[in-house]
Every structure is written in C-alpha cells, then in structure tokens.
Amino acid sequence: MDNIKGYIDENKDRFLDELFGLIRIPSISSIEANKPEMYKAAEYWKQLMLDAGADKAVVLETEGNPVTYGEKIIDPALPTVLVYGHMDVMPVDPIELWDTNPFEPVVKDGKIWARGADDDKGQAFMHAKAFEYMVKNDCLPCNVKFMIEGEEEVGSPNLPKFCQEHKEMLKADIILVSDTGMIAPDIPSITTGLRGLMYWEVEVTGPNRDLHSGLFGGAVANPINVLAKMITQMVDENGHITIPGFYDDVIEVSKEERAMMAKAPFDVEEYKKAIDVKELAGEKGYTPSEHTGIRPSFDICGIWGGYIGEGAKTVLPSKAHAKISTRLVPNQDWEKISVLFKDHFESIAPDSVKVVVTPLHGGQGYVCPIDIPAYQAADKAYTEVYGKRPVPVRSGGSIPIISTFEEILGTKSVLMGFGLESDAIHSPNENFPLEQFFNGINTIPLFYKHYAELMKK
Amino acid sequence: MDNIKGYIDENKDRFLDELFGLIRIPSISSIEANKPEMYKAAEYWKQLMLDAGADKAVVLETEGNPVTYGEKIIDPALPTVLVYGHMDVMPVDPIELWDTNPFEPVVKDGKIWARGADDDKGQAFMHAKAFEYMVKNDCLPCNVKFMIEGEEEVGSPNLPKFCQEHKEMLKADIILVSDTGMIAPDIPSITTGLRGLMYWEVEVTGPNRDLHSGLFGGAVANPINVLAKMITQMVDENGHITIPGFYDDVIEVSKEERAMMAKAPFDVEEYKKAIDVKELAGEKGYTPSEHTGIRPSFDICGIWGGYIGEGAKTVLPSKAHAKISTRLVPNQDWEKISVLFKDHFESIAPDSVKVVVTPLHGGQGYVCPIDIPAYQAADKAYTEVYGKRPVPVRSGGSIPIISTFEEILGTKSVLMGFGLESDAIHSPNENFPLEQFFNGINTIPLFYKHYAELMKK
C-alpha cells in the first residue's frame, strides 16, 4: 500500500476527467423530468466499476431511479465491504447565486466547484479509485461490493424494498460510506451519529380564490397569516418543539458524553462569522454543537403563497404553502413523528382555513459504536494519512438509509467522510478541496488493509 | 335623456368592440417591462375621448406612466365634472387559474370575462360612452374633463405631482369615479368611505447562504421561521394590530352610525359560502362589514423563501420575504403608519437575522358627505335606473388618490361604482356583467342632468 500516493500522482488528471464526466450529468433526483439523467449516471457508474476492476456491474431497476451494483469477490472466506454512495444530487436553486455553471466543474483555488463535487459524486468516486488502485496493485484484502443509488437526496424511497429484494446480493460485513464531513482539514473526524428526518409539505387554503385585500381584508382569514401563526406555534420561546409526544423517545445524552463532545474544537465566533450572523439561535440549555448533534430541530425549508412578483399587488390569497422538516435524534421514529406532526398541525388550524399535510419523506437516526473493527480500522487509516486520530462526532445531517441498512440487512455502517463545512453542499457554489479528494483516495485502501487485519483476529 | 336606452341598444356591439380593444392591451402597471403597453392604452384612451366628442385630448407624461387628459368645455359658467379612471390593471397571477386568456375578452353567461373587464377599464369606459351619448344627443349639461391614469394599481405614485402641476387644467366642481362596486344587482349602493393603505416588502436574512438543514438546523436561526414569528406578532389574539401607536388616529365610529350600517343587507352564510370558508375571522367586537368598512386590517399579500420547487429539499435558507399590507381607516395617515410599522418590525427582529423593510406605496382613506349636490345627484340617478335608492356604504377597498385629489385640488369625489363582488377584481377570472355595464352607461347621463339642476339652485 506504500505506492498509493504515487499512483494518485500519476493518475490525478484522469481521475478528475472521469469525475467531471459524472458531475456533468445533471442527476437531480427531486425533478421528475430528470429521470433520463439518472439512467445516464447509473450507466456511467457501471462503467466506472468495470474499469476499476469489478467482476461484474449492473444497472438494476427500482420503482424509482435505478441502482448501480458492482462486485469483486476474491475469496468468499474473506470479509466483504459494501460501499454505499449516491449518484443523485440536490437541486441548484437559487441558480443566480452560483459563480459557475453547477454542472460544468471548474478547478479553482485548489477546489472542484460544481453540484455534487462533494455530495456525493466526489466522495463516492473516491471509492471507485481506491478500489481501482487495490485491484491494479494486487493488494485488495477483502471482497468488495458497490451499491450506488439515485434517490438519496429525496429520502431513498425505493431503496428499502431494493434491499429486501437483494438481501443475499448485498450481504456484507460492513457498509462503508463517504457522504459526511470532517471537522477541519487538520482535524479528522468520523461521524458516529446521524439525525433522522421527517419532511412534509403543507397547504393552507382560506377563501376559494384570491380576494381583494381591501374589500375582504379584516373579515376573512388570510392563509399566509394563518400559516405563519401555525408555524410559529410549533416551537415555543425556549426552542422546544411543541408537538405533543415529540420528545417522548428522545434519549437524553448523559452529562459525561456531553462533556466529551464539548472537547471537540468549536469556535463559536468563527462559526458565526462563516455564515455572517450576529447571534445563533436554538433550544435553551444546549450548545450549538448539541443543537445540531444530539437535539431535534424544526425548520421551514420553503414557503410560498400570494403575490411574489415584482411590485405591489394587494391580494388576500387563497392558498399558502410550506415545506417543513424536522431533524430527529436516534431512537425517535420518523413514522411516529410524522403522525404526531400531522395530527397536531391539523388540530391547531382555525376553522377559517382548510389544511392538507403531505408527508414527503422520512428516515431514522443512526449511531455507530466506536469499538467495532470497522470503526477501529477507519480510525487507524485516518491517523496514518492525517497524522492525528479522528474525533468521533455526532452529525446533524441525515442519511436515512443508513439505519434502514441496519434494520433490513443487519449490517452496521462506518461513515468515512472527507467533506468540509465550507463545501457548501446543498447550497450554491458547492465545492470539494482537491486535497480532501486525494486524501480520501489515499485513506480508503488503508481502511481495507486494517479492516482485513482486524477481522482476522 | 329619454332615448339613452335606445342609444345603448343601437350601439352595444360597437361599445363592446371598443372596450375589448382597450382590454386587449396588457397594461399591467406593476411590471416595468409593460411600459410600452401603457402608452398604447393612453393613446387608445385619447382616441376614445376624441371620438366621443372631446374638444381636445392629450397624452401627458409623468415620471412614470402617462396620463390621458381630455375635455369638452361648453360654457365656463356651467359646473365642471372631472371624470377620473385608470387604464392600468393588476397582474394576472396565478395565470393557471384563469379559464380564459385574461387579455382576450370573452362574453359568456351575460358577463365580460377579462382582466380589467370591471377594474377599471370596463367601468371607466362607461363614462366615455355616456359622454358620447350626451354630446351626440346634444344634452350635455356640464363641462366635462377626463383624467385617465396608468398607475392606480401601484398606488398612483406620480399623480399627486401631476395634479400639482396641472391644478388649473384639472379645476372642477366634482370628481366622478367609477372604480367601486354596489352591494348586489338589485341593491344599488354608493361608496361613501374608502380605506387607506400601506404596502411594504420585507426581507429577512439569516445566514449568508442557504445551509444544509441537517448540519446547521437547530443552531442557526431560520429566516422563514423568524419571519413567520414576526408576522404572527403583528396581530394579537383579538385581531388587534400590535404596532404601537397604530390606532392612535382611528376615529371610533359612533354607535348610531354602526347601527345604521348594520341595516345594510348582509347575509353572513351567503358571504361564507361565496368564498367557501367555514368561519370568518377578524377583530373581536366588530361585524364582518365593520371589519372591512370601518376597521384597519393587516394582510400578508405574498410570502416566499427557501425551496419552493417540486419534491423535498432539505435546506436552511438564507432569506425569506413577504409583501405586507395594511388597510387604514380615514384619519389614519399612511406616512405615519409606514414609519410606525418599520420601526416596530425592525425592533422585534431577533439578533440572529437582518431585516430590511421597503415601503412600496400608501394612500389615505376618504369620506364623502352624503349631503353635497353631487352625492344627491348620484342618488337620484341610481334610483331612476335601479328602481330603489342606493345605500351609502363604507368600502374596505382603497383608492388612495381620492384623498389626494381633495388635498391638492380641493375637490370632493363621488364614487359611482357598478362593480359586483362576484366580479373577482384582482383575481383570476375577473368579469363584469353586461347588465351592470349598460346600466352604468344609462345611469351616468342622469347624474349629469341632476347635478346640473341641483347646482343651479
């Protein structure tokens, strides 16, 4: 494994060319019309797997977007690593805030700039190249399977069924995922906890048509005013979510663990400066890291209603809409939360409006124990590349499918992320530092080496 | 004046053709790009005035959209009526809710269907045809002036200056306006009060870019959540607007007057049915007619922020916006209210966001005394056409320029409206019943006759 750096050096232009080909496919999964792009991305991944040395690679259908599966089984007696990643990306709105075309990657200031540069095209691609290295240099110590899906950004609605139907094919000792981040380029970390998620769209209807706000204003409930009030009622002044029963299954993290978490470097002033806010917000009694790491949150992801064009239109609109999400902590069940929210939201609606709540997607939270061989192997790999041990952290993000893997396949996941906070995933000007990209390709084969060794014991 | 019905009958097809030509010009004043259409509409009006018998008609520039002015002075010793109307119309969003092209008028079910069919192309056009009748039949008993402007729907920002600069030209004994409605086709009414208006756009900025709602949610204030809360705080649970000082200049209407108002026919069940709501809303202690007639209101006309596309995008957005309006009652000053709102709205913003409040337009309320000759002439004219005396009503709508006319020109206005609530002005499928249109053309010459007679006494 000593020549991995040399291999990266020799092939880095080709690596980028291949990644850029993948990025240029606008595989936005939330837009139905982009389906043909999903198939292009799936075929592209199939070729990547075959070129890297897979014995076989196939594009498999689901009821939604396809999954590309590939494998190289060198010895059934050896442990098997299942690499999971996703080929789909987030929408690019607001497009006017991008400095470059989101689907035409550019290298500038030592970073790749594009939608998917990090999440998750860039990160998943590192695994293809690490695998290629191990195959070409005859040092692959485990069996490898790849499952690259196309619906992660919309909550993987068809992957659970896919896993059910392909349990045998997907059998593995560990699932390896790079779809998270580390604290800083010089502070490696491994995500050991993920928040769950529930996402709804709500529609509030007042009068059956847009009304003149002068002729009717004051007598007829305005659905925007009502929606604003209903949203406001969902969180109290202490930042607690008011849905009855919402916190019932939340396991309070112990004082000891919170003290350990508090040791992770976190500069609140830097944090505020990076996003340009004067003050943070959040639930009373918890720190910002705790707000995102161990506590649920309630965010309006989008809102619209009435006249939103240029200038002034005096209207009392018929409808108002919002996209509402809550992040859940491990042990909260999204299906239960989905019902609690719907019941509560409908119950607080005044009789002057009609409310429709549509659940869009959900997923459970996840915790990875730090004493399993796979975690320890990852720990060693990072330590060798970065020169210091990675910090185990609880992330605020959600990869709902991770807990589903455990449920259906009975397999734990290790989240070897190489993203940085400044990568602006889900935002305009997403980027991925070349250094992190190449470090990732460098770190992954070391994981395989240590994992195979630890599994022998 | 006895042959007016015959004249309408002979010319009704031509009247409609001419009106439809005007309606086909998409003169939406809130859209800057539509400026050329405003000039087309202004020229169209010039020709209408000349064709009807004006001695002169001119398109006059303002800093915004043009004003078409025309006049026929038959005898300087006679009273002069200044007809005011507007050639501009509201935007047509949401366009998908229109059954027909808003700018291609259709006659169906006895109604004209189009944007501006009522407000105010249809209603203003009645005056051109009533004038034409009186000229052609040699029974014009007053001098007539026409002032048709192009910015009423955006608050007439340039008309006050125009009035200042053309005081002499616009000199008149009364201003006659058809830009309001009546209670029902069989219950004629004349609007004697108008609410004032103030309209703002607000922008709430949280983080400097859209953030991942998982990684940041719970620690960083979400500008949509914050905007919703700020909006909610503006009105208390009794429907009172909470802006300090907001009600200071509101003159409480006496018990006697409220008792008179309560005699106007109003069927709350019919009202709710027409707009399909189970319950009305509004300030505690007042009736629905009072809510819109004599009390201020606070409506969000539009709201937007975050992801509003198809499907789910988990984002903690950078910005949220709203278009906010309040209707004011006579004696409330919009400029004072504008400052009170801005100060209050900014003061309740938490430190976690930045707020920008932009006033878009405003206007004062207006009251017309029912003992002036012009009101009495209108009363007689309606009585003759509709067979019953019109009810004087306070309308919730605003025509801000009406109070400005009084301030600058020293002239009162009489609001002879022929619109109906079902005309859906400012909404999709705006329409105007042919019967009201022709009744209007029938009623206006009678107003002139009685007005000239009453002014002789």
TrEMBL record, chains A, B:
Keywords carried by this UniProt record: Hydrolase, Metal-binding, Protease
GO molecular function, one term: peptidase activity
Top-level division of the source organism's lineage: Bacteria
CDD domains: M20_dipept_like
Keyword Protease applies: yes
Alphabetical list of SUPFAM superfamilies matching this protein: Zn-dependent exopeptidases (SSF53187)
Gene Ontology terms describing biological process: proteolysis
Pfam families: M20_dimer (PF07687), Peptidase_M20 (PF01546)
InterPro entries given in the database record: Cyt/Met_Dipeptidase (IPR051458), Peptidase_M20 (IPR002933), Peptidase_M20_dimer (IPR011650)
Domain Peptidase M20 dimerisation: residue ranges: 192-351
PANTHER family: BETA-ALA-HIS DIPEPTIDASE, SUCCINYL-DIAMINOPIMELATE DESUCCINYLASE
Name this polypeptide is given: Dipeptidase
Organism the protein comes from: Ancylomarina euxinus
